[in-house]
What does this fold into?
Amino acid sequence: MIITLLGPPGSGKGTQGKLLSRALGLPHLSTGDMLRDIVASDSDLGREIAAVIDRGHFISDEMARDMVADRLDAPECAQGVILDGFPRTLPQVSLLDDILVVRERQLDAALLFEVPEEVLVARIAERGDGRLDDRPEVIAERLAVYHQKTRPVIETYRGVGALQVISGDQSPDAVLEACLRLLQPHRKAG
Ligand code: AP5
Ligand code: MG
It folds into this structure.
């Protein structure tokens, strides 16, 4: 089963990615986490990436594609994967289609977490794990970029009937339960 988690910054993609990973026994593949690992490696590439993400902007679609494609070919992803943060632009939707088609795989569902904007801002402000893109002025930019570039992704998945909308403004356990309920038909189908 291949699913992707959608939603604005702070909506709980990472939180649910980990919970779903445990519940479904599938790897959680977060492009944001992968990028932060590269940044932590203190290389030239890491510094380049930091300069982009710390302003709240996106890295290139091709780089995002390559990170995901590489990981999908790992044996632990043979049964499926929980994508978190990819695709998040319209070109990335096509790139994901290309990645999956050549591997004779398909996206089973796109789960969208909806959370009021004031709750998102408060959650990110409270997170306190030192992410430079969690500064208030960068949060505003991340939200603006989300509306401009990721909203069309949501509408695309809605249009093809792949989108499942979940309130992310409830406890993490309640969100997980809602996700698992919506994924039940896909789990039965294997
Ligand atoms: P990424 O790491 O994906 O960041 P994001 O989408 O901005 O979202 P966050 O990670 O901040 O939020 P989340 O939805 O994961 O929520 P979380 O569970 O942490 O991307 C970072 C950057 O990398 C991007 O801006 C971009 O530059 C780059 N990038 C990544 N992918 C890319 C791509 N494909 N293409 C181009 N660039 C890309 O929760 C947030 C907080 O709320 C936590 O403290 C959590 O404990 C809390 N919380 C979670 N759920 C609940 C709940 N139900 N109730 C109360 N609190 C909750
Ligand atoms: Mg995240």
Summary: The mean pLDDT is 96. The first strand starts at residue 2 and ends at 6.
